[in-house]
User: Which sequence fits this backbone?
């Protein structure tokens, strides 16, 4: 009998299990921002959340738009036009708000989405990048409130 042991299955199994868990959560509307949270979940004794509406209703909603030098409607049009092509769970909230305000989606020339980096596209000649605040230089976000997401036009 010959037995061969290799660490490869263990090296592959952990990332596959974590990605599987994140995917399972995403299908159920749960966003995992930091995969380490999954590894540490078994140590939790108390869970405190501040997103009551999102948890009880089960759907994220857009509650405000902050714009500097551009109207809220134009921000929503540019953003929602690109978000139509996104797989991100929060994109639906942006699109729903634009539809609620009767904003017509514009034609999108190019779109690309890199996981963890955001969404980039061209709408009406504007280069639009939708990403998290941490992905932008601090000087670009200093005038926005703490809760504002990153949008660059």
Assistant:
């Amino acid at each position: 009998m010959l037995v061969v042991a290799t660490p490869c299955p263990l090296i592959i199994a952990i990332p596959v299990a974590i990605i599987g868990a994140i995917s399972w959560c995403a299908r159920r509307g749960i966003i995992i921002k930091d995969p380490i949270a999954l590894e540490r979940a078994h140590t939790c004794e108390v869970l405190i959340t501040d997103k009551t509406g999102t948890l009880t209703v089960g759907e994220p909603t857009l509650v405000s738009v902050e714009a500097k030098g551009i109207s809220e409607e134009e921000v929503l049009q540019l953003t929602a036009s690109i978000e139509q092509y996104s797989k991100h769970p929060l994109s639906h909230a942006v699109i729903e708000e634009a539809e609620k305000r009767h904003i017509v989606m514009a034609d999108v020339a190019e779109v690309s989405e890199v996981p963890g980096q955001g969404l980039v596209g061209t709408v009406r000649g504007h280069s639009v990048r939708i990403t998290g605040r941490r992905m932008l230089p601090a000087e670009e976000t200093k005038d926005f409130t703490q809760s504002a997401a990153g949008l660059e036009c």
